Amino acid sequence: MKFRSFFGFNVLFFGLLLVIYVAHVNWIKVDVVFYAAIADAVLAACLAFAVLLLPIGRAFNPFEKLQLFVIWLLMGYSFAISVPTVIDRSLSFYILEKIAQRGGGIRQDAMSDVFTKEYMKEHRLVDVRLTEQIESGTVVIENGCVRLTDKGRLLSNLSRSFRMNLLPKRRLLMGEYSDDLTDPFRFGVRAFDYGC
């Protein structure tokens, strides 16, 4: 009885999540895909929890009901980051879609052109990422200058520290193991002055 109820309530949660997400992305304005998907997950978890509090949820004690709510929040977070956010942001999926668009093959020596001349423009990458950073409170734009906020500076320092100390030092990149991505700026071009 309890397992069947557990299964049924999980189906209810996922059904609500799917309906809410589809409605949201089709008929409501979205500022940031990840935040919108998180909001959808929280709403679905709250609605499923409300149903769980009805007599239909009597198979569960109060602690188990709370556990289910937390599980739904975690599953919703997993969905938000693993499906819409990954597909929206993933260069890997873009590569697959672009190769399919081009009939199933692209010359390897042209891939960098695909990224710089097509990906950036087609996905409005700069606009999307700046919007996300502004909405996250990590940057502000003042008089045409993109500036870090205190929050942005903190996250940048944490990210840089993690990258340099906790990313793989021997990562496979095109047949060779390298630590290039632990400090990608070491080979960066400094000839351009973009400062403001």
UniProtKB/TrEMBL annotation:
Keywords of this entry: Membrane, Transmembrane, Transmembrane helix
Segments passing through the bilayer: 7-27, 33-54, 66-87
Highest taxon, organism lineage: Bacteria
The protein, known as: Uncharacterized protein
Species of the source: Uliginosibacterium aquaticum
